[in-house]
Design goal:
Distance between the termini: 59 Å
Largest sheet: 5 strands, antiparallel
Order of helices and strands: EEEEEHH
Radius of gyration: 30 Å
Oligomer: single chain
Strand content: 25-35%
Number of domains: 2
Helix content: 40-55%
Keywords: Coiled coil
Number of strands: 5
Amino acid sequence: MRVRSEFNVLGIIKSYASNGLSIFESSQKGKKEVGQISGGAIGDIVAYDLENKATIIIDSNEWEKMPKDEKARSELMAITNESIDELRIQIANLKAENLDLKNKIAQLEAKKSDELVLKGDENAK
Protein backbone atom coordinates (compact mmCIF):
# COMPACT_ATOMS: atom_id res chain seq x y z
CA MET A 1 0.00 0.00 0.00
CA ARG A 2 1.42 3.33 -1.07
CA VAL A 3 1.34 6.44 1.11
CA ARG A 4 0.88 10.10 0.19
CA SER A 5 4.37 11.02 1.38
CA GLU A 6 5.78 8.97 -1.54
CA PHE A 7 4.42 11.56 -3.99
CA ASN A 8 4.82 15.27 -4.74
CA VAL A 9 1.42 16.65 -5.72
CA LEU A 10 1.66 18.70 -8.89
CA GLY A 11 -2.01 19.63 -9.04
CA ILE A 12 -5.61 18.59 -9.50
CA ILE A 13 -7.24 18.07 -12.90
CA LYS A 14 -9.72 20.91 -13.34
CA SER A 15 -10.73 20.74 -17.02
CA TYR A 16 -9.91 19.43 -20.47
CA ALA A 17 -8.06 21.26 -23.25
CA SER A 18 -9.28 21.30 -26.85
CA ASN A 19 -6.27 19.15 -27.77
CA GLY A 20 -7.64 16.29 -25.62
CA LEU A 21 -5.23 16.72 -22.72
CA SER A 22 -6.30 17.22 -19.12
CA ILE A 23 -5.49 20.56 -17.52
CA PHE A 24 -4.30 20.45 -13.92
CA GLU A 25 -3.85 23.39 -11.58
CA SER A 26 -1.80 23.89 -8.48
CA SER A 27 -1.88 26.75 -6.00
CA GLN A 28 1.26 26.80 -3.91
CA LYS A 29 2.27 29.79 -1.83
CA GLY A 30 -0.31 31.95 -3.59
CA LYS A 31 1.18 31.15 -6.98
CA LYS A 32 -1.14 29.43 -9.46
CA GLU A 33 0.51 26.98 -11.83
CA VAL A 34 -1.13 25.18 -14.75
CA GLY A 35 -0.02 22.08 -16.62
CA GLN A 36 -1.32 19.48 -19.06
CA ILE A 37 -1.26 15.69 -18.94
CA SER A 38 -2.75 12.88 -20.97
CA GLY A 39 -5.57 11.00 -19.24
CA GLY A 40 -7.36 11.31 -15.95
CA ALA A 41 -10.70 12.69 -14.90
CA ILE A 42 -11.68 16.00 -13.37
CA GLY A 43 -10.77 15.91 -9.68
CA ASP A 44 -7.95 13.39 -10.08
CA ILE A 45 -4.56 14.11 -8.54
CA VAL A 46 -1.49 14.66 -10.73
CA ALA A 47 1.57 13.66 -8.74
CA TYR A 48 5.26 12.92 -9.16
CA ASP A 49 6.05 9.41 -7.92
CA LEU A 50 9.29 9.80 -5.95
CA GLU A 51 10.00 6.06 -6.00
CA ASN A 52 9.44 5.41 -9.72
CA LYS A 53 10.55 8.87 -10.90
CA ALA A 54 7.44 9.40 -13.02
CA THR A 55 4.45 11.70 -13.23
CA ILE A 56 1.24 9.79 -12.61
CA ILE A 57 -2.49 10.35 -12.20
CA ILE A 58 -4.14 9.08 -9.02
CA ASP A 59 -7.91 8.68 -8.80
CA SER A 60 -9.33 11.16 -6.29
CA ASN A 61 -11.10 8.39 -4.31
CA GLU A 62 -7.90 6.35 -4.14
CA TRP A 63 -6.00 9.44 -2.95
CA GLU A 64 -8.53 10.07 -0.18
CA LYS A 65 -8.18 6.49 1.07
CA MET A 66 -4.38 6.55 0.90
CA PRO A 67 -2.60 6.87 4.28
CA LYS A 68 -0.66 10.09 4.83
CA ASP A 69 2.63 8.46 5.85
CA GLU A 70 4.28 5.27 7.15
CA LYS A 71 2.89 5.75 10.66
CA ALA A 72 -0.67 6.05 9.36
CA ARG A 73 -0.14 3.01 7.12
CA SER A 74 1.12 0.96 10.09
CA GLU A 75 -1.89 1.98 12.17
CA LEU A 76 -4.26 1.12 9.31
CA MET A 77 -2.60 -2.26 8.78
CA ALA A 78 -2.84 -3.05 12.52
CA ILE A 79 -6.55 -2.20 12.51
CA THR A 80 -7.07 -4.25 9.35
CA ASN A 81 -5.22 -7.25 10.80
CA GLU A 82 -7.27 -7.07 14.02
CA SER A 83 -10.47 -6.92 11.98
CA ILE A 84 -9.41 -9.91 9.90
CA ASP A 85 -8.62 -11.91 13.04
CA GLU A 86 -11.99 -11.02 14.54
CA LEU A 87 -13.77 -12.05 11.33
CA ARG A 88 -11.93 -15.39 11.29
CA ILE A 89 -13.10 -16.07 14.86
CA GLN A 90 -16.68 -15.15 13.93
CA ILE A 91 -16.54 -17.46 10.89
CA ALA A 92 -15.25 -20.35 13.01
CA ASN A 93 -18.05 -19.76 15.54
CA LEU A 94 -20.67 -19.64 12.79
CA LYS A 95 -19.36 -22.85 11.24
CA ALA A 96 -19.65 -24.62 14.61
CA GLU A 97 -23.14 -23.20 15.15
CA ASN A 98 -24.15 -24.28 11.64
CA LEU A 99 -22.91 -27.83 12.29
CA ASP A 100 -24.85 -27.96 15.57
CA LEU A 101 -28.03 -26.81 13.84
CA LYS A 102 -27.59 -29.37 11.06
CA ASN A 103 -27.21 -32.11 13.69
CA LYS A 104 -30.34 -30.92 15.52
CA ILE A 105 -32.31 -30.93 12.27
CA ALA A 106 -31.11 -34.45 11.48
CA GLN A 107 -32.11 -35.60 15.00
CA LEU A 108 -35.57 -34.02 14.70
CA GLU A 109 -36.10 -35.57 11.27
CA ALA A 110 -35.06 -39.00 12.62
CA LYS A 111 -37.35 -38.60 15.63
CA LYS A 112 -40.27 -37.58 13.41
CA SER A 113 -39.64 -40.55 11.12
CA ASP A 114 -39.49 -42.94 14.09
CA GLU A 115 -42.77 -41.56 15.46
CA LEU A 116 -44.45 -42.03 12.09
CA VAL A 117 -43.20 -45.63 11.91
CA LEU A 118 -44.57 -46.31 15.39
CA LYS A 119 -47.94 -44.92 14.32
CA GLY A 120 -47.87 -47.19 11.27
CA ASP A 121 -47.69 -44.43 8.66
CA GLU A 122 -46.97 -45.90 5.23
CA ASN A 123 -45.04 -42.80 4.09
CA ALA A 124 -42.49 -42.97 6.89
CA LYS A 125 -38.89 -43.36 5.83
